[in-house]
Design a protein that fits this description.
The chain has about 240 residues and is of the alpha/beta class. Helices cover about 30% and strands about 30% of the residues. The relative contact order is 0.21.
Length: about 240
Amino acid sequence: MSIHISAQKGDIAKTVLLPGDPLRAKYIADNFLQDVKLVSQTRNIYFFTGTYNGKPISVGASGMGCPSIGIYSYELFTEYEVDTIIRIGTCGAYTTKLKLFDLVNVDNAASESTFAKYAWGIKDSLIRHQGKAFKTIKQTAKTLDMPIRNCNIHSSDIFYRKDLKIPKVAADNKCLAVEMEAFALFANAKYLGKNAATILTVSDIIPTHEKISADQREKSLLPMMKLALEAGIQL
């Protein structure tokens, strides 16, 4: 077990899906996986391992922000010898080029975060997806006839901010949407030589204030979950 994950060695599969919300991890385990075992619940951050179409896969929660996913992804990669992490989450669109419910396969994550610099000496403010997971997701979406947008996103350290303009790091890197975790996940994977990707569902359009309703949210995330699972078992 690691400091923040109480699973035993061998309890976590080589591929892990990582939503932010522990209850979303539980939903995936309850509704998609077979032969499921709860392998960790430290701090009520649930990790489950089961099979999907006969292949082992784990799902757990990352919490919110670069520091939190930085901890969980690092321990998964190093303490549990995980090869691939696919973050699945929601994002806010900076532009009406994206629509509610659109799926995004993150090409690069741009950030004002100092996480990569101070953790690993990576000075870039833009970090690419790592390894083969991005391409596998792209190919799987095509096979499943799921439209998906491959683009750059902004991983912000800030949820509420005084200045409502698109931050410079996002504008400079042509980011179409914003979330809070992909940058740190990609930084850890880059340093450790692991596979990392991020799939997002557009939950709100910032310029028009459109949002997915609470009633729509559960069903609207199902395509993303299905895509991540189908891609995950190929990695």
